[in-house]
Every structure is written in C-alpha cells, then in structure tokens.
Amino acid sequence: MTMQFGLLGAKLGHSLSPKIHAELYKILKLDAAYGLIEVPTEQLAAKLSEVRRTYTGLNVTIPHKVTVMPYLDSISPEAQAIGAVNTIHIKDGKAAGHNTDYFGFSRLLTHNGLDPAGKTVVVLGTGGASRAVLQCLSDRGAHHIILITRKIDQAPADLRAKFAGPLAPKVHAYAEKLHTEGNRSGKLVLRSMCTYQELPHLQADLLVNCTPVGMAPKTGLSPVPAAVVANCGAVVDVIYNPAETELLRLAKLQNKPAVNGLYMLVAQAVAAEEIWLERRLDAALIDKLVDQVAQLL
C-alpha cells in the first residue's frame, strides 16, 4: 500500500518539496507519494482532521507553522522550545508535531562554513522559519541576535518577551538563566529586537532573511537595501526558489558570502523522512539530493 505524505500550506505553486521527496523515494525504493495540500488558515483544522485518516506524514509551511500547533495531539520538545512545527508524524490516528527546520538550518551553516559562535547575527522576520533559526543561532553560541520586525508592538508576544525591552535588565536575566539552566552553547546570548528603520545603523557578521520577500510573487525585491547588506559580513536567504534572490544578488555584487535556502530545505526534508519512517538515513543523501534539485532551479 502506497504511503501518503504531503506539504500543508496556503500557496504552494513554488514548492520543490514534491520533487525532493520523490527523488528520495526512488533512492530508498519506497512505495510512497508526496503531494501538495493547499489550505487557508480558516480551514486548517478541518483539513488536518481529514488528512490524518490517510496520511503518514506532513510538512508544514507558510503560514501554518505556528497556527497548526493547537490541533496536534503532541508536540516534541524541540518544536515546543522553538514555538513552531514544520513536520507532523501521524501514527495510530495521533498527530505529533516536530521541527526539522532547526536541523536543516544548522546543516546549512556547517556546510557553508558559517559559524555563528561569538558573532552578531541579524534575523529578518518573526514567522515559523525565523523561530527555528533563532533557536539554532542561540544553541550554536551566537553572541548577539538582533531580530528585525516591522513594528515591535505587533510582533508575537513570546518573541517580544525574549527580544524586546531594555538591554541591561535582559543581560542580567539571561546571565541568571545561563547560570541556572545554561544552553547548548554554554555561552551568554544577548537578544534584542529592532525595526527596519533602525536596521541601517546596525553592524552584523551575518544577515539571515526569514521573510518571504524575494520569492514569488515578490521576486526581484529585497527585504533590505544594498546599504544594509554592506554592513553585514555574510548573507543567508532561507528562500530557495529563485536560487538567487535579489538580496543574494546584492550580496554577491559586494563580494559577500551569499547562501540560499536549498541546503536547509533538503536537510530538513531528510530529517522529516527519518521521523516518518522511524529510521536513520545516510547523511550523504543530503548532498546527493541537493545536487539533483539544484538542476531544477
């Protein structure tokens, strides 16, 4: 019997996920299918109730990574900490939420020699992908993470609590937390939140775009101008289609390291399959799939 998997999102015409998973099923010789499930937010609960009867696993993308969480039976510790779900495993009628974006972003950093430890990193956007990126940067020892949002008072409350507010009390709070709990890096991580208006005045070692600006239908647009790119040492855009966004084009014009999100996409897909299939897969599959999928862009 063919196993059913799919991607849950609002607009999915740009997605390469079906091709990635189809290639993986060929390599693994699996009788499986992966489809696109477009659903608006107001119909999300009903659609999830429907597909959980026939599907083994789902990926979740914009704009459902946070809103899907109340409809799940359980949420893994890493997804709970991140505050977003991008992978759902359905077993015995129960839907369990996970987050493999974290793993994918970490693998992207390592693969491209971008070590955030001790660095200042600017992250654009407060959505589901951003949450995984923020947690990964923290765990890998970034010194200062600056989260950029349009309006601070409209940012998600939990992110405001972590990133907004006076810096001095935050330093003391995080120092105390580090002393009692620590984090995976074992280092103090400073966090702050700024608006796009303040961004031109900031210097950073790395800029990470977690907004959809640059992908269809906003191709040809950059979330920040060239002057902001000039203040950053390297640029990562988690968008993978198009392969070169306007933001990455601006970075390359300035001879900055510029990395798209394809490696992250493939790495998180392999991690999702490990959850669904309940088995470990060869890490070399990631590089093989990246080479194959890159030819499609």
Architecture overview:
The structure is a single chain. It contains 11 helices and 12 strands. Helix 9 links the parallel strand 11 (232-237) and strand 12 (258-259). The chain folds into 2 domains: 3-99 and 263-294, Leucine Dehydrogenase, chain A, domain 1 (Rossmann fold, 3-Layer(aba) Sandwich), CATH 3.40.50; 103-260, NAD(P)-binding Rossmann-like Domain (Rossmann fold, 3-Layer(aba) Sandwich). Helix 1 crosses helix 10 (262-277), helix 4 (101-111) packs across helix 5 (128-139) and helix 4 packs across helix 10 (262-277). The strands form 2 sheets. It has a 6-stranded mixed sheet with strand order 2-1-3-5-6-4. It has a 6-stranded parallel sheet with strand order 9-8-7-10-11-12, sandwiched between helices. The longest helix has 16 residues, at 262-277. The protein is globular, with a radius of gyration of 19 Å. The mean pLDDT is 90. The protein has 297 residues and is α/β, with parallel strands linked by helices. The chain starts with a strand and ends with a helix.
